[in-house]
Predict the structure.
Amino acid sequence: MKRVFLIVLDSVGIGEMPDADKYGDKGSNTVKTCFKNKNFSMPNMKKMGLFNIDGMDYAESEMAPTASFARMSEMSNGKDTIIGHWEIAGIESKKPLPTYPNGFPKDVIEKFEKLTGRKILCNKPYSGTEVLKDYGKESVATGKLIVYTSADSVFQIAAHEDVVPVDELYKYCEIARKMLCGEHAVGRVIARPFVGEFPNYTRTTNRHDFALAPPEKTMLDFIKESGKEVIAVGKISDIFAGCGVTEKILTKGNADGINKTLEIMDRNFEGLCFVNLVDFDMLYGHRNNVDGYASALSYFDEKLNEICSKLKSEDILIITADHGCDPGTKSTDHSREYTPMIIFGENIKKGVNLGTRKGFADTGATVLEYLGVKEKNKGNSFLNEVILNSR
């Protein structure tokens, strides 16, 4: 019974791509920034071959890596979560999703106000924590919704849970999702509920993403249609708008996501367990918190032994990322970086350097081939380079 556990370390990039300057990201290197921090410790990933990956020459490499590995290039135009995950699953996005550096057009906002019956505040690119400091008090007093964006293709709606109940906020997000189509088809509408008293407002774990549906079938659809399971952990189901998912498991951060993955590993199923660990990006990258980011990487590495101990003989573990978010740069936005790919299992060769791959989709193609799914995606499978024997 073949199972693949595909874990995306959200925003864990490993160095600028050649076109990073076009995105304002020259010099970005998320892992290198964290490597220099006192809280960084990843001995288990190192043993697997993390620092044997192309370009990661600032740390000591492993003489006999226990896994195989690659540096992944992004084919798509973009550096956001949606495009990164879609590409892993086989979609090349040639056109970037729309962004709004000057806020959303007046007609978009007016239509949203009319459909919801609530006025809005802000309508600018903003830090998610700073926007609460600047607009939270007025939002609580008036019931107005805080609408803001970022360098990513997002329409974010924040409201205090005591003023706008979470279910009501979700309904407003659904309205926005249906409204934002055509030229304004943003990648995600995000509910950003918060609690507390001014000036100490805090965002809650009731965040919910309403993603744009993928424009074509992905790895998830193909696996589901073959009769196998696609278990989506964290925000995976949101990212793919539920397409191709057989089971959706929400999480409240990295620790919860890892624990739920460990529970799934004790179950019998055939197919894919697709996991997103969002804290790296949401809590640390976007807040330029190097200490926190380094600690989060160390925590994942610490739990890696437990994850690997639960792998069965035909299981494969793949660890990768969707973009960068260097907490050491001035920017608080995502960065255009290569991502790591580590593949491990009893039936996987050790120490194979797969080099620099042309696209994230190679990972999805490999998953499909291993699970015996006939449909192909836009990637090139590297299974034959790392598999020990066919079963």
In short: The chain has two domains: 3-94+214-386, 106-211. The chain has a mean pLDDT of 96. The two ends are 10 Å apart (CA to CA). The CA atoms of residues 71 and 340 lie 5 Å apart.
